[in-house]
Write the structure tokens for this entry.
Amino acid sequence: MALTDFCMASRRFRLGMVGGGQGAFFGAVHRRAAAMTHRFEFVAGALSSDPTRALESADALYLGRDRSYTDFAAMAAAEAGRDDGIDLVAVVTPNHIHAPASLAFLASGISVMCDKPLTATLPEALEVEQAAKAGTALFGVSYTNAGFDMVREARAVVESGAIGEIRLVRVEFPQEWLASATEAEGNKQAEWRTDPKRSGAGSLGDIGTHAFHLAEFISGLQCVMVSAEVDSFVPGRQVDDNVSVQLRFENGAKGSLWASQVAIGKTNGLRIEIYGDKASLGWGVADANVLHFCPLGGQRIIIDRASHGTVVKGHMPPGHPQGFVEALSQLYADMADQLEARLTGVAAPSKSLLLPGIDAGVRGMRFIDATLRSGSAEGRWITL
Amino acid sequence: MALTDFCMASRRFRLGMVGGGQGAFFGAVHRRAAAMTHRFEFVAGALSSDPTRALESADALYLGRDRSYTDFAAMAAAEAGRDDGIDLVAVVTPNHIHAPASLAFLASGISVMCDKPLTATLPEALEVEQAAKAGTALFGVSYTNAGFDMVREARAVVESGAIGEIRLVRVEFPQEWLASATEAEGNKQAEWRTDPKRSGAGSLGDIGTHAFHLAEFISGLQCVMVSAEVDSFVPGRQVDDNVSVQLRFENGAKGSLWASQVAIGKTNGLRIEIYGDKASLGWGVADANVLHFCPLGGQRIIIDRASHGTVVKGHMPPGHPQGFVEALSQLYADMADQLEARLTGVAAPSKSLLLPGIDAGVRGMRFIDATLRSGSAEGRWITL
Amino acid sequence: MALTDFCMASRRFRLGMVGGGQGAFFGAVHRRAAAMTHRFEFVAGALSSDPTRALESADALYLGRDRSYTDFAAMAAAEAGRDDGIDLVAVVTPNHIHAPASLAFLASGISVMCDKPLTATLPEALEVEQAAKAGTALFGVSYTNAGFDMVREARAVVESGAIGEIRLVRVEFPQEWLASATEAEGNKQAEWRTDPKRSGAGSLGDIGTHAFHLAEFISGLQCVMVSAEVDSFVPGRQVDDNVSVQLRFENGAKGSLWASQVAIGKTNGLRIEIYGDKASLGWGVADANVLHFCPLGGQRIIIDRASHGTVVKGHMPPGHPQGFVEALSQLYADMADQLEARLTGVAAPSKSLLLPGIDAGVRGMRFIDATLRSGSAEGRWITL
Amino acid sequence: MALTDFCMASRRFRLGMVGGGQGAFFGAVHRRAAAMTHRFEFVAGALSSDPTRALESADALYLGRDRSYTDFAAMAAAEAGRDDGIDLVAVVTPNHIHAPASLAFLASGISVMCDKPLTATLPEALEVEQAAKAGTALFGVSYTNAGFDMVREARAVVESGAIGEIRLVRVEFPQEWLASATEAEGNKQAEWRTDPKRSGAGSLGDIGTHAFHLAEFISGLQCVMVSAEVDSFVPGRQVDDNVSVQLRFENGAKGSLWASQVAIGKTNGLRIEIYGDKASLGWGVADANVLHFCPLGGQRIIIDRASHGTVVKGHMPPGHPQGFVEALSQLYADMADQLEARLTGVAAPSKSLLLPGIDAGVRGMRFIDATLRSGSAEGRWITL
């Protein structure tokens, strides 16, 4: 039970946010996640494009009136000019704002933690990529699942060679919340997610990218081609709500990815299984604190988070469950480590480099693009 | 707890067997399954093509010397000529013998319970189909999973309309036992199953047909097209050991099927999930005594075999697990019901018609054929 | 996958039955279990004390009219006098008939497979014990759970020393079927089980004895003292429907046993956990095909039936579930092995000695007796 | 998906801490939990009784030098005298410090969040109770599990009458971490927990009190008597490491409680089941995001956190797991609500009253005391 404590280390940074005002969902999760690292102070925001809502939200969150903005461009400019300006901005808007907001802050030299998918379209993503790689600001993408201890343990198991040469990567992310026309019933989250102008894609962007990132993150392999069935089952829906994709990986491994928002009975069923020639492993968010492992010719093993022999050192003893906010807080802790490294010139701890960055963001957009194209072409194999 | 008792009913029939001698696996399961119905006496067999083994096996199983044959053709002729000849023969040989043996007994007017896949090739299957439909002998195919109470319950739930219009059918059957070159290590079961001359196909025939039958049996839908990835991961293997198939159904539903014999950690992981627009259901052989059900906007429900409100009446109270042999015995009980109905002219109980017959056998072969063709053509969609 | 085949061996024996006619539950399970061993022919019965029902039941089960009796005493006498008389009788009546029926057959030199609890009262049990030990007839008690492969595997794990010195034995058997006054609603099974004259005890006899036997069978330890709470929650019920017992074992280990028939949501929740100073193990009937094992300082392991390294060799490959009837058939196979050994003078296979015998039957009655006495004395510790 | 957002509300309070310096475990969890509510600023601490460690810890946590103390008495006095003094102190020391520290802050009018068990001895607990009830400072006890959404949902289900009259309350809390003599191997957490002078009791105080609180919290019933087996299995250990307790409740319900720190394979297995005459429910920390519910004559239902029809409104959509830190943060949010209510004179939201208070703390100490006395008297029933 050697526990690490990311509360006791290093210096603190100033955090701003674009989006995440009243009525939003994920902004509050980001604020809680950042707060629990003890390494970020939340000091500025363009919390809503509606001025009244923006101000009310800012007040409720104790922002100074001078740090509440209604416009991300103004915020980027103003914060860049302050001595006590923000070090990092969280971009937690609908997808179509990701690119312009990210570009504005990158141009001001302010580091960005952007929600996934990176952007609404692939061209936008490439533009952000260019900006991110040109400057010195850091760029993170909040693929939250990459923050779970046992996802990182899974990656470490693969890296160790324990499962051998990978043959199969199977990942699925079924949800039920759009099984009927929720977007027509006043659900704000559903509205923008099913509006192609704001989201870019449906289940594919909202959760398919999570699944795709997890597959590449744990396996360490790049997917090179996809063949897809892309469907929209709910009458009148303008985006995909179910995608089933065959995957081919660089080493010859095969795979499959299923993302669905019409899977009644599944609240949030992200799950992955990887089969090698020496062993297999499995992980799912519904039982996020364990990793399933089975060697060839052996028995099935359930590895508890932080238990005997695990390489990822968590913040609590085994059996004390790590939740979703805690997973996201890991990404903020990684970002703080990287911010500090840049400041001090001392190399960041290697584990902080597990924070998904701009490359992972662009990979997700290439996956969306290729899948949609394959789906429109009777499942023709498309190269990413 | 209103239990049915298939031990108390009807008359008994005489059973013979082709294959299933010493060293075989599934023949003994068939014998046990038939015995526990109390409606079949095992009296004759061509248990092995090796005369010594055939005779030793017959002795060990209390067959009369005059009822032990080394040749299925001789057996069919002799049994057809006896007053106390067999009513039913179980064909439990390697796949390439299924067709000639079935044809011999059908030609003699003897009913057949044939192991799956129906044959080694589609043309053989069509020949058996013609013979079966031409005569009055009955024909069953031992898709064992169709005998589990909760599989039949699942089918009844779909038929009741409770899940609404089906959108998705997802089925998988992973196994681990061929994850390395088991066939090179003297495993007799592995040898013939990986020999294309004797098996016709690998994982596709051995377990893919089980998965495919289950999908059509529970959903009540016919699959009309497939697009497939067909792989052989173990070096030197001459048949497929992993197949991943996209499915399209007659009503516009989509689906996927995965069969693998290289999935380390999975002993026998058959599992199906069906999603409609009103509810979903799920079942798997590893937890065969429960059915998962979830209505739209409701909670997940675990339905125990034989519990409150189930429509399938089992032979034991809820919580007393039904095993694999018991599932197969249900198919023999169904066959006995049908044999008796033919004899008496009284209609067989409708539930006995759930016994998979020649049509289900041929469907399986069409699935194998289409999948292999798609796999050879970069996943082109092939119509069954 | 080295499978044994208890179908191919040895000679067959003749089986009779007392009880188990139309409307009974467990008699049919016994007949199926015996039949699937291929080593018993069911030829005689006193299936009901109601003459009409007895005859109808016998006809439906193909018994000869001369082998159908309405009286177990007459049956014992007649069968003992026939050259083709039965070798074994299954006693599957309400508990109060166990002793007189067993005594009649033992007196006639006919071996007995008696359902549990051994008798309705401890004095009866001691009388049967004396008779069983005086003669040469064999005596088995159908503690069915002792027939599950993974229960035997668990016992073997303990015997191997892998869990070290046992510290704790925790066993529970909750059921829901008597959570309301089922006995007042015409349920025949409930009626006699809640009638103290016919059952002797309630949940304690019906399922508590199963739990107690499992604890001693797997642990290899004898329980020496009990302290109990004995309750009857359903108004008007004349027997216990919930017992919670503290256990002390001969080696200083402690334990607990819970049996309940008012546990809504539990169909048949027998489960045991044993903790040693080196490892722990767990097994439950709801997931009967796996054994949970965890070494000190290690990870949790799920051992599949018949998988790599298991010592109990089953009749099917791993992943093909073993059901309740198959578990009971194991006890009949054991009995057949012992009958054959007695006949041939060759020692029975050691595994056949796992069949629970008269000692296990008497232990169960001592447990009932001591628990009821402690329950009446504010939980005073009572020595078995 | 109507989510509440405890980030957007109310005013902030100042938090101090006693204990929780470098090398401690639970202090950091408290700090993260408080931080993620956005309603507490951590500004002062007596983090260690070792002056160097206290100062280093304070620096690492950004406390001002003037707010770092080595002595809780000095801290209470100083903070009470400041305009910007703390509103709340978290007491997260070994148990024997709980009473003197709590008393010091209560005497200064500063509210307290005290870790469980309330104190090391019952007399100390009564002294703290008297002080807490005499003043206006608030008092919370961090029974963390009471902060899980599904624990509160369970309590609401009981309150609704859905399970009817409670018959049985069964709770267990097995852990493995003291299965060998960990305290002799330099584990600081193990050292003080197995030192009777610092802990008061072993597994009983450390986790038994959690289990006991959960039983009373969800059932709404008070336990009136206990009969216990209290054991210490590890040679040389000076406190109990395994307790098995029979419980009697005020309404006649019966129960059992098992707490163990020698249960190999159980990292943190708190689990409770409650059986009424209309339904049952179950919850466990290993699967903290679901509640099991089963009505009489119905099917087993798995209720997901925040899903359709649940009464507890969480902070995230269903399927996004709530972790241990989030559960504790709920208690801090409750405390903030109560602090604000006291300040404003507006009644606190009723849900904030679920925060366990001084009464729950004292109940836990009465339970420890009665259990130890019963354990020393051969399980004699002791009234709490």
Observations:
- The two ends of chain A are 43 Å apart (CA to CA).
- The longest helix of chain A spans residues 324-344.
- Chain A touches chain D through 50 residues (CB under 8 Å).
